Amino acid sequence: QRTELAKLVHEKTVTADNHHVELAANIGSPNDLAGVLANGAEGVGLFRTEFLYMGRENFPTEEEQFLAYKQVLEQMGEKPVVIRTLDIGGDKQLSYLPMPEEMNPFLGFRAIRLCLDNQELFRTQLRALLRASVYGNLKIMFPMIATLEEFRQAKQILEEEKKGLQEKGVAVSDRYEAGIMIEIPAAAMMADQFAREVDFFSIGTNDLIQYTMAADRMNERVSYLYQPYHPAVLRLIYNVIKAAHANGKWVGMCGEMAGDSIAIPILLGFGLDEFSMSAGSILPARQQVSRLSLEEVTKHTEAILSMSTSEQVEAFVKSVLDKKDI
Ligand code: PEP
Ligand code: MG
User: Residue limits of the PEP-utilising enzyme C-terminal domain (predicted)?
Assistant: First the structure.
C-alpha cells in the first residue's frame, strides 16, 4: 500500500477518465515545504501567514515577511502558491495588538476586518507579498470576506501598494492573482457577483460549515451540528463552483473537507478545480481520484443536492464507493 502510494508522488492527479484536478497542500510555515514536496503536491493551496505574527513581541517587518514568502515561492518553482493575508482574531490573538474582549470572537473583529482597520499592518504585508511575487506563481488571498466592498477595498489597497513599489523602481510581477476565501455564507450566496471581480475562490469549509450551521467549530456540545455533508453546506459549495466557472474563474477548497474521502467524489462531481489539504492526505487522495470517473460522479450531483440530511448523503456516497471497491 505504501509503495503503491509512493509511485504516485511524481504523477499528476487525473481521474479514471483522464480529467486533471490539482491537489495542493496547506502549510503554516516555510518549514512545511519539505513534506509538501515529498508528498507530491501540485501547489500550495493555503499558506497561513499567522505564524509570522504569533509567538513574538512585535510585528514582523516587511523584510522578514518578504524573505518567508520568497522562500516558499522559490521552492515551489512554477507551481501555484496561494498566500493568505493575516487571519488573526477569533481564537488567535497577538500580545502586542491588544483587542477588547468580544462576546462572539468568531463573529467579531478578525481577519480582513482587522486588516482594513489597521492599514499599516495590512499594507506592510501586501508590499512583502508584491515584492515576493517575482519569485514564483503567487496568488494572494483575502480571508473572511463578507461583502463586495471589503474585497474592493482590499484590492484597491493592493493596487496602491503595487503602484507605490513600481514608482520606486521595485519589480512586481504582472501575473499574480488576487482572490478570496469563501467561508462566510453571505459570500457563498453572492458568489455570482464576486466571481466577476476576483481572480479565484478558495472555499474555507472549516469556517463555512460553522457559520452555515451556527455551530462553533471548537464546541464539543454542538459538534453534532458541524456537518460537512449537510445539503445546506453542499448547496452553497455547488453555487460557488458554478458561479466561478460561469465567469471563467477557478475555484479551490482549503478547508479540511477537501481531503476527506467521502467529500472528494462529491466535490469532483461539482467541478471543483483544486483541493488543498494537509500534505499527508495528498497521495491517498490522488489514488482515490485515479479510481473515480468524472463522468460518473457528475451524474450523482443532482441526486446529492436534493437529499435532505447529511446521513443520507454519507450513506449514498459510501454505497457508491463500496460498489466500486474504492
Ligand atoms: C477554513 O476556514 O476552512 C480555513 C481553511 O481557514 P482556517 O481553518 O485557518 O480558519
Ligand atoms: Mg477560516
Answer: 4-292
Ligand 1 centre to CA of 144 (Å) is 9
Ligand 1 centroid to Cα of residue 253, in Å, is 10
Residue nearest to atom 9 of ligand 1 (CA): 48
pLDDT of residue 87: 97
Q: What is the mean pLDDT of the chain?
A: 96
Residue 40 Cα to ligand 1 middle (Å): 22
**How far, CA to CA in Å, does 77 sit from each of 24, 72, 98, 134, 144?**
14, 9, 38, 11, 28
Kindly indicate the confidence band of residue 1, based on its pLDDT and cuts at 50, 70 and 90: low
Q: pLDDT tens across 147-203, in order?
A: 999 999 999 999 999 999 999 999 999 999 999 999 999 999 999 999 999 999 999
